[in-house]
Amino acid sequence: MQLSDASRIIAGAILLTIVTIQFGGWFMTKIVRGDIPMTDFQKSFARAGHGHAGVLVILSLVGLLYVDQTSLSGVLLWLGRLGIPVAAILMSGGFFASSAGKGLTKPNQFIWVLWLGALSLAVGVVTLGLGLITA
Question: Cβ distance 129 to 75 under 8 Å?
Answer without folding.
Answer: no
